[in-house]
Design goal:
By secondary structure, the chain is an alpha/beta fold. The protein contains ten helices and seven strands. It has a seven-stranded parallel sheet with strand order 3-2-1-6-4-7-5.
Length: about 250
């Protein structure tokens, strides 16, 4: 099976044994790219013990200070969740999500890939962390008891990815002409947009005054912008700034 650039990102993992168990689940399903964001304990002997032979995946795991850093080089990003979210997020079940991940990983340009993000064991991902994702990934389960630990979730998602890869191995792949924008590129777009909004005195009119940028991020994530599209938008923003400054100096 040809390797694909599919990354699992664990955020704020509290138990080192869970890191090892995820590494084992990944190796079972021919996945090897593991990144940890702010783990409580790593490296740790318990992680090694729970990896049960997936020492190479564990040894290759990278620690990142932020989620944006962990997603560097990734286009499509899916965030796992067990909770119902509001209508602004697109939600894919595990099987549909696996198909998208494999399709995008195959079509990605050299040096780019895709990622699945897992949150802390007790609380999952925060709403702020979910804003890094193009869509949410849910594992259908008994509604009376949907609780899965992180290693179980990684195993199930890894299995669906493995099966999607088998189904599509014989299919000709058309490479993306332009990669999806990375998390860092999207963050620079949001910062630029916020700057222009501030300069134009365009303010959030909601009661709390914090929801506008959240909504902007969600609809841009649903659009799955590529790098050229982000550059076009930033070019427009720069032109707006330039025109405003020219108008201000002439007045």
């Amino acid at each position: 099976m040809r390797p694909l650039p599919i990354r699992f990102v664990l955020v704020d993992t509290s138990h080192p044994g869970n890191i090892g168990a995820v590494a084992r689940a990944m190796k079972n399903m021919a996945l090897h790219d593991l990144v940890l964001v702010n783990p409580r304990q790593f490296p740790d002997p318990e992680a090694v013990a729970r990896a049960s032979g997936a020492d190479d995946v564990l040894a290759g795991a990278r620690v990142a200070a932020t989620l944006t850093e962990a997603l560097e080089g990734c286009g499509l990003v899916l965030a796992t969740t067990a909770r119902e979210r509001d209508q602004y997020f697109r939600v894919l079940d595990a099987r549909e999500a696996a198909g998208r991940l494999v399709e995008e990983a195959r079509a990605a340009a050299a040096g780019t890939g895709v990622a699945v993000v897992f949150g802390a064991e007790r609380s999952g991902l925060t709403n702020e962390q979910l804003l890094c994702a193009h869509a949410l990934l849910r594992i259908p389960a008994n509604p009376v008891y949907e609780s899965l630990n992180i290693a179980m979730a990684a195993q199930l998602i890894g299995y669906e990815i493995f099966m999607a890869r088998r189904v599509g191995d014989a299919v000709a792949v058309k490479l993306r002409e332009t990669p999806l924008a990375s998390a860092a590129e999207m963050e620079r777009l949001y910062e630029h947009l916020q700057q222009v909004m501030d300069e134009a005195n365009f303010r959030d009119r909601t009661q709390s005054g914090i929801h506008l940028m959240y909504r902007i991020k969600r609809f841009f994530n649903r659009a799955e912008l590529d790098r050229n599209e982000v550059n076009i938008l930033r070019g427009i923003l720069t032109a707006v700034q330039s025109r405003r400054r020219s108008a201000g100096s002439s007045g």
